[in-house]
Design goal:
about 300 residues, alpha+beta, Deoxyribonuclease I, Chain A, six-stranded mixed beta sheet, about 20% helix, globular
Length: about 300
């Protein structure tokens, strides 16, 4: 069973809702129009088709319509996800979503009433007679201090405690946190408003990569040089993570976690070929590129 998580970088539909980022308001000088929307759908669908995961979590989807359009584009390319869901109980600019070949039930976990916090999507599967809980996350970006990411982590842990750590649990998404965030963010004083504590390491308790702990970050299973999903100013970071419970770790196919990095997702061999926009203001869509993140993939066996 192949599981993936992919921040697709702002997949907006062509309907004006009033919550869009300025450059994604449809049919303006920014050229977010039918032509560029179709190009974005096709490019993201190509990546997802090449990954061919059984379950793929998505971040930065604007709406159910955008998710359905992506699903339809994938179907045209020969990859059919019968089951899908977006966390749209709350109006945020972008949301998390899920595409799956397996049926699932779902609910949303509210982090905070503020629009600054995106809901977490919880999905429950029954696969090969095993109950599996999967949580799709998109925590606050680094424009906010660590206390905001801790809030998301606490909401997630509260729900996991209700289910029980002994269950088969997979936690995926864009955490906007390196797998060893507690080491990297100490130098960023404006983010550290929590006395060095982090959501991903201290609240989820993944601080030392020990498989003895209740939750284990799969990045620790492969060489350090391979642990990345994002490149910021030439520096590799692992903002996207796949974290599992002890029970789920027993089903994990060792050394299978990786960032999906075919040559076409790179520009000049060292930059991720993100969705392209003009640097000058107002920003204009160029109709080429993919996402600023790489997808992260892991396999499980039963």
């Amino acid at each position: 069973m192949k599981v993936a998580t992919y921040n697709v970088e702002n997949l907006f539909d062509l309907k004006k809702s009033g919550y869009e980022y300025k450059e994604y308001i449809p049919y303006t000088k920014a050229k977010w129009n039918k032509q560029n929307y179709k190009k974005k759908l096709n490019n993201i669908a190509k990546v997802i088709k090449d990954i061919d995961a059984d379950i793929i979590a998505l971040e930065e989807i604007e709406s159910l319509e955008a998710l359905k359009d992506l699903r339809f584009t994938l179907k045209q390319k020969g990859l059919y996800y019968k089951y899908y869901k977006i966390a749209n109980a709350k109006t945020t600019t972008v949301k998390v979503a899920l595409l799956s070949k397996y049926p699932f039930s779902s609910r949303e976990i509210s982090v905070d009433y503020s629009y600054k916090f995106r809901n977490i999507l919880e999905a429950k599967f029954k696969i090969y007679n095993k109950e599996i809980y999967l949580f799709v996350n998109h925590w606050k970006s680094k424009s906010g201090a660590e206390s905001m990411r801790i809030k998301s982590a606490k909401a997630l842990v509260k729900r996991i405690k209700q289910i029980g750590y002994d269950k088969n649990i997979i936690i995926v998404g864009d955490f906007n946190s390196h797998y060893e965030e507690y080491k990297t963010f100490k130098r960023k004083r404006k983010l550290n408003n929590t006395n060095g504590k982090t959501g991903i390491n201290h609240i989820l308790q993944t601080i030392d990569g020990s498989s003895k702990q209740k939750l284990y970050n799969l990045w620790y299973d492969i060489p350090t040089s391979e642990r990345f999903s994002y490149i910021y100013r030439g520096k590799k970071e692992a903002l996207d993570n796949i974290i599992v419970s002890k029970a789920m770790l027993k089903h994990y196919k060792h050394h299978s976690i990786h960032s999906f990095k075919p040559h076409y997702l790179f520009f000049k061999h060292k930059y991720i070929y993100r969705w392209q926009m003009s640097r000058k203001r107002p920003r204009v869509h160029k109709g080429k590129g993919y996402s600023d993140h790489l997808a992260v993939v892991a396999e499980f066996k039963f």
